[in-house]
Amino acid sequence: MQAKKRIALIAHDNKKHELVDWAKYNADTLLKHELYATGTTGTLLEQMLNAPIHKFMSGPLGGDQQIGALIAERKIDILIFFWDPMQAMPHDPDVKALLRIAIVWNIAIACDRSSADFIISSPLMDMEYTPLLTDYGQYTSRKI
After folding, report:
1. Whole-angstrom Cα distance, residue 1 to residue 125?
2. Residue 66 backbone zone (phi > 0: left; psi -120 to 50: alpha; other: beta)
3. Where are the domains of the chain?
4. Cα angle value 28/31/35 (rounded, 5°)
5. Top-level CATH class of 6-140?
6. How many other CB atoms sit within 10 Å of the CB of residue 64?
7. Dist. CA 141–CA 61, nearest whole Å
8. 13, 64, 77, 117: which is the annotated catalytic residue?
9. Is the separation of the CB atoms in 59 and 33 below 8 Å?
């Protein structure tokens, strides 16, 4: 993981305002890194930060899975995902799959403002870092 991180920013509808406020407050730090986002969240962040954001589809239309694929390809370093635990989501399996793949590849995950504050204020944000990965050789070398 390079010093310049690749950060994915996602928020459910009821959390978009909170994520945009958080990003505005942390704009100086965020703009040192490469930013990715799903659908409307990406558009809101791009307008507020006045900076380019790699935007994907809306989460329910596949954006969560697009971000998940980048995590599996080791192209996302940090996931900031403000999800709403009080709202039922029709794409809940996609959300769980995204969180699962982030854990499989041992990337930093923040699901609320407090954890996002801890991640973004870490001295590791501006340093190279090598996360320890689980050896998944048993899965990659299986014979059917």
Report:
1. 10
2. alpha
3. 6-140
4. 140
5. alpha beta
6. 29
7. 33
8. 64
9. no
**Chain segment 25-78, per-residue pLDDT in tens:** 999 999 999 999 999 999 999 999 999 999 999 988 999 999 999 999 999 999
**CA 27 to CA 76: how far, in whole Å?**
19
Give the pLDDT confidence of 86-118 residue by residue, as tens digits: 887 777 888 899 999 999 999 999 999 999 999
Sheet with 108-110, strands from edge to edge, namely 54-56, 34-38, 6-11, 78-82, 108-110
Distance between CA atoms of 77 and 49, rounded to whole angstroms? 20
Cβ proximity of 106 and 136 under 8 Å: no
- Whether the pLDDT of residue 131 is over 80: the answer is yes
d(CA 44, CA 49): 9
- Tell me how far apart the alpha carbons of residues 27 and 32 are, in angstroms, rounded to a whole number: 9
117 catalytic? Reply is no
